[in-house]
Specification:
The chain has about 280 residues and is an alpha+beta fold. The chain has 8 helices and 11 strands. The chain has a 7-stranded antiparallel β-sheet. Strands 1-2-3-4 form a 4-stranded antiparallel β-sheet.
Length: about 280
């Protein structure tokens, strides 16, 4: 049944998006990740030149004609990484400058379709089954810690819904997130969600309420943030646990919900847990 297998493909694309969606890497890092891979290997990142658009970096088998005319300096394998812009419009997302390309409801749907048929791309996308950034760090032990430090230096940021904060005494770990989520969702009246900008850096987590409804900015320093996870009950929520003071044992869980499916909660949690908390513990 074709539609069932297409559903499986879409699910697999969603499951693998953490491998191919790397919002914060630079164009040069994308080339570094892909240049030695097989044609069809790709990553999608947030475009730094066009706000709100995505960059698709794709390894191809033959360089574009323009690259052959350029001087022979530089690394020839990097000429085999082509860059495409994915624009976000009211109708959906699509490859820019390709009139025959349809609009897709999400980045995942665009990737899924191009993994089945290339359409306007030079070749089909090959869905990765592991993280290309980790493969880079596997190949040289030196870069494993460096990449975490580099990632932190760049930081990561996206918009999320802030649902509230719950005092937990000394509770931490997944039970803390679960308790905070259940308590918040059961509250009467239900919590109002506020759109906030969630930034993770080497200094910690900074929340900015863009409309200044609840607060202007709150910062949680890296040595007070002790845990971050998705809601264990599978609701699309996540939270981080931070000590109220650097020396105290009183904890608070700050609770959020995904705002943009292209910035999934799982990716945010991974970044906070592995990169920020992980680097700080070393």
């Amino acid at each position: 049944d074709l539609s069932a297998s297409k559903q499986d493909t879409v699910k697999f694309v969603q499951d693998t998006s953490k491998f191919w969606y790397k919002p914060d890497i630079s164009r040069d890092q994308a080339i570094g990740v892909l240049k030695d891979k097989e044609p069809g290997s790709f990553v999608v990142r947030d475009s730094h030149s066009f706000r709100g658009a995505y960059g698709l970096a794709l390894k191809v088998s033959t360089p574009p004609p323009s690259a052959l005319q350029q001087s022979k300096k530089g690394d020839p394998s990097s000429e085999l990484v082509r860059h495409f812009l994915i624009e976000c419009t009211r109708k959906g997302v699509r490859l820019k400058g390709c009139p025959d390309e349809p609009y897709f409801g999400s980045l995942t749907a665009l990737v899924c379709q191009h993994s089945i048929t290339p359409l306007a791309l030079p070749c089909r996308l090959i869905l990765p089954d592991r993280d290309p950034m980790e493969e880079l760090s596997d190949s040289s032990p030196q870069t494993a810690t460096n990449s975490a430090a580099d990632l932190l230096k760049q930081g990561a940021a996206c918009n999320v819904w802030y649902l509230g904060s719950v005092e937990l005494e000394s509770l931490t770990g997944q039970q803390a997130v679960q308790k905070a989520a259940s308590q918040t969702l059961a509250a009467e009246p239900p919590p109002t969600s506020t759109l906030v900008h969630f930034k993770v850096s080497a200094q910690g987590i900074t929340l900015t309420d863009n409309q200044r409804k609840l607060f202007f900015r709150r910062h949680y320093t890296v040595n007070t943030v002790i845990f971050c996870s998705l809601d264990p009950q599978g609701r699309r929520l996540f939270g981080f646990v931070a000590r109220k003071t650097q020396s105290g044992t009183e904890n608070m869980c700050h609770l959020f919900a995904e705002h943009d499916p292209e910035q999934p909660a799982s990716a945010i949690v991974n970044f906070v847990s592995k990169v920020m908390i992980g680097s700080h513990k070393k």
